[in-house]
């Protein structure tokens, strides 16, 4: 049994733990092969990440200027997800330093969980293929019309499944969806600049921003040791003029709309 004071660290998957876009880009190209589209680079795919596979696909259609009838577009979307299900971790790689951090957290008795907007069965497949499954107490993904980040519910579910408590939880992610979920859940946040954000992640003004696993380790261990240097989970007042574009404002405001 873990005590109520046992810290829990919840990690996003794509762009946080694992560089997944090469496999996603390959699946997209497979689904769109009949439309003579240019190959999708990992860099291009990264700009469309963060809100689940379906949203990725719709963004890809826009980016490739591919106008399809609704039924045809949805059929292509289903082909994309089916292709991705077959090989979700053929080209994907764990980011440097992440596996070592997870092993260290487990050795310290810290509860760990994954909370992703990716389909949960696919997330489990990726973690299994990359031999990460045993480093987590819980994995929560999307499916069956469950709410996704920035809604706080999946983070709360991940913590509950892991056996933790929200008041001793830290979220680690890389996008506005993670930012919104942390604010809505009232928990501290560490954001990684190497991930898949559509905009400079530091522009949201909430959480600690780090560039690599070394700095991530410093902040995670500070939280585990109950260091007070991490920001309190109080949504900051942010001037609208500080946002670089409306997409940033939308991502910042999303959790409040969902909670209304």
Give a topology summary.
Layout: E1 8-11, E2 18-19, H1 21-31, H2 42-46, H3 53-63, H4 70-86, E3 93-94, H5 98-107, E4 111-119, H6 120-129, E5 138-142, H7 153-162, E6 169-173, H8 176-185, E7 189-192, E8 208-210, H9 213-224, H10 246-259
Parallel strand pairs: 1-4, 1-6, 4-5, 6-7, 7-8
Antiparallel strand pairs: 2-3
Helix pairs in contact: 1-4, 8-10
Could you explain the architecture of this structure?
The protein is of the alpha/beta class. The protein folds into 2 domains: 8-18 and 93-259, Rossmann fold, CATH 3.40.50.1000; 21-86, DNA polymerase, domain 1 (Orthogonal Bundle). It is 42% helix and 13% strand. It contains 10 helices and 8 strands. It has helices at residues 21-31, 42-46, 53-63, 70-86, 98-107, 120-129, 153-162, 176-185, 213-224, 246-259; strands at residues 8-11, 18-19, 93-94, 111-119, 138-142, 169-173, 189-192, 208-210. The strands form 2 sheets. It has a 6-stranded parallel beta sheet, sandwiched between helices. Strands 2-3 form a two-stranded antiparallel ribbon. Strand 4 (111-119), helix 6 and strand 5 (138-142) form a beta-alpha-beta unit. The termini are far apart. The relative contact order is 0.16.
Question: Which properties best describe this structure?
Answer:
about 260 residues, alpha/beta, Rossmann fold, DNA polymerase, domain 1, six-stranded parallel sheet, two-stranded antiparallel sheet, 8 strands, about 40% helix, elongated, disordered C terminus
